[in-house]
User: Which sequence fits this backbone?
């Protein structure tokens, strides 16, 4: 990996901006939709499989699939960013799709719950590689002016697909059974995503070097990975605030993924209704990011992040308080809106303050902490649910989410000049 930045990239025929790169950008939007769909296909039905087919009772045991997914994805995110800086984005994307190939087959035919856990290790590694690189590639292409919009569109594609796949597999499971039929979709997702990535996606690392050559101090030395890790995790007030907010955001998502099906089922919701409720939250999250990402380009990042964490906390609290389909749907909508306010804005804020040449490495560290939230949220929620009840676990996560917004309000600096 080069130790300094070279201005020679500015002489290339590469261009920055969404308009100049709309074909590749649009293609990456489609690819990321298939990445998101891989997660969505198990989101509404895996807890039911755990209870009905494998006779698991303890919530902590059932939520173990989210723990292994979160740890695998978090660790892979860390290395995906560094590898993308060192070797290029496309090769990392293709490897991610190859690792995803066994996942739907393992989910279809797993003879024990341990095989489901293995499938989620593969899924986590794959998601860490594929989603990380599609994020990094869109930041590369967009340039500094429309970074928030680019992240909004990226996360829209991924999480709208999560919701659509959750709805589709919930419907298939309700009509044809929990296995194997819902996971046939996953085979198609892998095949299409892999073919697009191999045949049509182009490398974008040159765009990051072009942007670096156009920024002040283009010859700045590249920090060590250790320095990048500690700056992003602890030392820099803005980057560390962003990292903790990302972790808490996925902490509550891990809880929602694992416990909400039990909350809804305990209130008498049918499998089809649970699938619908499981789809509402990521679908609203996905659609709203089309607007919130661009809005952060106009009004700044910090206010949206703080307000978004508090809206999430409100949505979770409503689900803890009420027990009807309408109220659950209301809570899911608020949770989706709040997450949409936060998710693309956090990524855009990192792009604002980090040198483009080591930006992928910084994004990798941020995404390490963010997706570790899946594991922490599932583990914490499962243990509290087993000890004190499911609703107590939901309330605890609502309180943590509210506190995270307070930390951002007091510690983060605004990164976008408006």
Assistant:
């Amino acid at each position: 990996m080069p130790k300094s930045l070279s201005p020679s990239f500015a002489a290339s025929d590469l261009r920055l901006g969404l308009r100049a790169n709309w074909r590749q950008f649009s293609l990456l939007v489609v690819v990321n939709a298939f990445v998101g769909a891989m997660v969505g296909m198990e989101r509404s039905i895996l807890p039911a499989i755990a209870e009905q087919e494998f006779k698991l009772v303890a919530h902590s045991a059932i939520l173990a699939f989210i723990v292994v997914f979160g740890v695998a994805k978090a660790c892979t995110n860390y290395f995906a960013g560094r590898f993308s800086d060192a070797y290029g984005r496309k090769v990392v994307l293709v490897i991610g799709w190859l690792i995803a190939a066994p996942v739907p087959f393992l989910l279809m035919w797993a003879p024990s719950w341990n095989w489901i856990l293995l499938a989620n290790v593969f899924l986590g590694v794959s998601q860490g590689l594929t989603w990380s690189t599609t994020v990094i590639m869109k930041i590369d292409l967009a340039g500094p002016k429309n970074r928030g919009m680019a992240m909004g569109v990226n996360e829209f594609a991924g999480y709208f697909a999560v919701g659509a796949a959750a709805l589709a597999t919930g419907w298939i499971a309700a009509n044809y059974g929990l296995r194997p039929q819902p996971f046939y979709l996953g085979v198609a997702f892998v095949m299409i995503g892999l073919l697009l990535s191999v045949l049509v996606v182009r490398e974008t690392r040159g765009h990051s070097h072009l942007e670096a050559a156009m920024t002040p101090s283009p010859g700045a030395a590249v920090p060590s990975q250790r320095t990048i890790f500690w700056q992003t995790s602890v030392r820099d007030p803005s980057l560390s605030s962003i990292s903790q907010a990302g972790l808490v955001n996925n902490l509550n998502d891990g809880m929602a993924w694992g416990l909400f099906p039990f909350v809804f089922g305990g209130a008498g919701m049918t499998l089809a209704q649970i699938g619908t409720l499981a789809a509402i939250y990521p679908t609203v999250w996905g659609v709203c990011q089309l607007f919130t990402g661009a809005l952060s380009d106009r009004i700044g990042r910090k206010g949206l992040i703080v307000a978004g964490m508090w809206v999430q906390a409100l949505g979770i609290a409503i689900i803890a308080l009420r027990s009807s389909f309408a109220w659950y749907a209301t809570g899911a909508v608020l949770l989706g809106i709040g997450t949409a306010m936060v998710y693309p804005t956090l990524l855009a804020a990192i792009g604002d303050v980090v040198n483009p040449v080591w930006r992928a490495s910084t994004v990798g560290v941020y995404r390490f902490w963010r997706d570790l939230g899946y594991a922490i949220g599932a583990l914490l929620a499962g243990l509290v649910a087993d000890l004190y009840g499911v609703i107590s676990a939901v309330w605890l996560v609502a309180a943590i989410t509210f506190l995270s917004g307070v930390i951002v309000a007091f510690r983060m600096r605004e990164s976008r000049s408006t």
Summary: The chain has one domain: 18-210+227-411. The radius of gyration is 20 Å.
